[in-house]
Amino acid sequence: MSVEMVELSVKASEPVRPTGILQQNRVFLDFFWDLAKPDQEVRLKAVENLIQYLKTNNKADDLEYTFKRLVDGLAHTRETARPGFSLALGQVLSAFEDVSLQSILDRIKEKHNLQTVKKWQTVCCAFNTPEQMQLLLVALQRFPQTLKPKKLKKLLGSSTIINADNIPKLTEVLKMAARSVKKECVLPAVVLDLLKLSLKEDSFQLFWNKAIIDGMLKEQPGPTHYLSYRLLGSALPHLSVAQLKEVLSGEVMMHYGEHVVSAQKPDRFKLAPEMDVYVSDFLQGCQDSDKQLAVMVGFSSLTNQGYPVVPSVWRVVQHLQPAALQSYVEWLKDTFLQPQLDKLLDFSTRKQKDSQEGREQKENSVFRLRKWIVARLTSIIDNHQVKKQEDLIMDVARFIFFHAFFSAKKATADIPETKGKLSVPLDDKTRGVLVSSFFGLLLAMHHLPLAEDLAEGAAVNQKRALGVTADGTMWIYHLVQYAQVLLSQTKYVQSSQPFSPEQRQAWDGMLESVANLKRKAKKGQTAESNVFQQLFLLVGMHLFKAPEELVDIMKDLQSCVDKAQEKKSKKKKKKQGEEPEWVEVMVDILLSLLSQPSRHIRQVCKTVFSSICPHVTAAALTAILDNDTSADDDSDEDDEAMEEEDEEEEEEEDEEEEEMEHEEVDQNFRLELMKVLQQQNALATEEDGSSDEDLDDEAMMELDKGLAALFSEQKKKTQAKRDEKSKLKKEKALVRDFKIKVLDLIEVFVARQAGSPLVLGLVEPLLTIIDRGMSSDSDQQEQDFLRRAADIFRNQLCRSKVYCRTAGDRQGELHDLLEKLMTKTQKLSDSSVCLYYFSASLYVVKVLRGAPPAETKEEQTAEKLRFMGNVDLDRVATIFREALSSFMSRRKSPLTAQMFTDLFTRFPVLCVNLLDTAVQHIKSGVREHQQSQACVLVLRAMQSREVQQLLSGAPWTELCAKIHVGQTESKVAREKVVKTLELCQFLVKHVHQQKLSVDLEPLQKVLQSLTTVITFKKTGKLEDTYWAVMKHFGVILEIKKKRSNTPQTKRHFVLF
After folding, report:
1. What is the model's pTM?
2. Measured between alpha carbons, how far is residue 253 from residues 190, 275, 279, 299 in Å?
């Protein structure tokens, strides 16, 4: 019924419908919608229904409309829709053969003719988004023969992509690309492709100046700026030398420099690491020295008030070709001599512009630039990855040394450094930087390996030579020779700090001593000769820095080396009343040199001391220890005084006005103040009630002058106190730094002479340092000193596999030392300090025991386990027994169970002697904690195989019986029970396994009654251990569940 009504309504409405497209009914139009659907079955059904509909109706306007829709559909925007329309068009043409194929082809050509499409639509389509722009660029790259300039002109209206008309559209595309990768920190491919295209079309300057500088950089700092910086880095490999110089001296670089300076705060985004990668990749892949030099100079010329924004230790320099490196070094030297700030890309922040003006700013900029250049030159030598020749290394070292200590009077060809003229004279600050950098450079050259080609020729297992040139001569020797040339050429060179006759004599004596050592070394090359040469040369170079301090040291060093060589050759023996041994003098010299703030001197002193370690005497070692321990006594007193003074200083700085009001402590100041007031009759009294209003103007002026002078004097006194405190702080810091350096010598001695009897003399001094350091609040420097001393003592002394094996003649002394250490251990209050004393005691026992006889090392026999060498077993056992009793009977003992566990593990014989004491304290310990620790010690002892071997047989059975009786008599305490049960578990298990004649029935009864004394939980360590023990007696735990709404469990044991 409803279908018929629909058909009638359709038929009734047909006559009144308009002609043309609007006459097509809904069913007909739906065919074309179905042709565009992605489902293939739907498309095929639509083609079939469309042909059937056209044949049934047989209307010309329907057929015309069909061809129009199908031809239009060939250019459908959806790729999946176009096959449907093309299939339908072919099927319709096949079904209606009377339709001419040529007419349809003409219609297609007319509809889809590219010549008739409006060019602005094509341009808008290509420049609409970064993706569409990228598509066009890819087409240009892949199909250059198809998209020729003439073709582009027909399509886009111009033969090039990058031109003045397209710059605004390109800029917008670049901005969209920048925002699209805001959080990805990458450069979109379309941007780099555009730059490459600009180079190909010879429009790079237009693109860079208009699109990047005038377009991207005009935006607020953000994604557009970061994209410009990334494009700058990515463009380096594609630009010529002229283009590199232009780009690296333009606006983009200026903005990048401002970004680097402003991004130094921790919360700012930093693009500098990305730029480092760009430059490093460019230098690594570029073989053109001119391009490498242009990039290095460009980035080095980007300065903030004279100081380049790139770091002075910029590691990209390691990729430079030798020619580029040489040219770069020459540019650095020329810029140092004649800094031309107007040729640099210099900028200042807003704050910097407000703070300095004119000449002051220029002088500061020159200093900042020179400071960076010196650091840059030094870092090039220090970087072992840089490919540099020996001539370049020496050239840099000579340049820095010359300008640090000399100046040119007149140019000479013998000294190339005299040819360079300074446009701005060197000030004291710059010379200070040069001096510091030179000695840092000396240290770098001391560790400098040979050139790469020479090192590759050496044998694989051969130790690489450091600090020498290809001919084996030390770098520092070459510099000393150069210094000698400068000192002798007074006509052309002037020293900034000329030597006095005494200092010049010391210098000449150094040269003579080095020459003598070199002659003796030729006869037989020895390590000692090289070390002493290096020490002489280093002290000689430091004469230029601190001549007054090192003249006496140089004289003592010459005398010492002469005596050492004389003794070595003649083998003379020292007699009573003669001068100290040469090694003692050498140690004093090394200690004096360590007071110098030089890392190079510190390392050379370690090397020298390492070579003379076999000759060190007790007196020399005592001198070293005195420097590390004697200073502690003074420093402890200074610490307390400094703390009080620091509190007073803080109050003075924070509350100066209140101090003036409450200056009760300074009575002298109050008296002086009253005198000034009384002299001018300005002090009011109760009798006359006078005031300052009675004074005339002249009297007031005199009063003001007197008060001003008094307060000025008081201010000077206060400032003098503060200066004195500051001086004391600096001196204290220097003392601590010196003590840390002295530890170097102690560490070297322990490492090289661990088997020497002299090492035993280090035990007590190191313990004293540790004890004092841990008992006082200290700053970071003191903590470093303490940590270093503790590491040397415990890890390198006590735990060393090499130790003194010749202590047989010092048995009494070592036993006394052991007793002293253990007595001190029990009196300490800090467990951390106690641990070091206990470790020292174990070390002394190890030295006394020595190594077991060689014939017993093959197998682990009881005789070997019982071997204790020179140990007085009864005395040592008594010492440790007293310590164990102290641990078990004191509520607050610094000793711990772990200490005795280590003792038992390392010395099983002592463990056997102390077991009775440990078993006794299972029930007699002062607290349950000590009783439980006694259980732990006994358990660890019984678990030891060595102890089991020593107590095999009747002693082992007797021990088990003692422990069994102890367990049955001990009181119940939950903390103790866990440890007791662990011991019981081990005991019962071994009694059963070894079938010992021990009656365990009393122990079983005590354990069974334990459940009535202690409330057991469902699970826990105590419960699990208890049932593990009971399992050995045949008692197991059963868990039954009730079938009720409230699930409960019942625990009971069943005796089999």
Report:
1. 0.69
2. 22, 11, 13, 8
